[in-house]
Amino acid sequence: GMSILPTQFRSRLQINFILNQEAGIRIVVYDNVGRRVRSLVNQRLKPDRYQFTWDGRDEAGRSVAQGVYLIRVETDSQTKTTKAVYLK
Q: Kind of pairing, strands 8-9 and 79-86?
């Protein structure tokens, strides 16, 4: 399973998930028009419980604008996209 908490955040967004089998994982943040803001994870992971954090910054380390962002988590077998609202 996977959870992204909270869906509204000011400083940190936590992405939690459990892998039941080894899989390639990609976690990417997009803005509300589909532009890639930040790639958080792109690697193969073993079965375990994982937690990743997005700090509201883009690839260059700049703080992003307030608004809606899409967090896309892709594994070998599924893709899940969740909306999160960044409040400054």
A: parallel
Backbone angles phi, psi at 38, to 5 degrees: -160, 135
DSSP conformation letters of 22-53:
-EEEEEEEEETTS-EEEEEEEEEE-SEEEEEE
Model confidence pLDDT, tens digit, residues 2-53: 677 668 888 889 988 888 899 999 999 999 999 999 999 999 999 999 999 9
What is the C-alpha R_g of the chain? 13
Domains (ranges, CATH) in the chain?
A: 2-86 (2.60.40.4070)
Distance of alpha carbon 78 from alpha carbon 65, whole angstroms: 29
Please state the pTM of the whole predicted model.
0.89
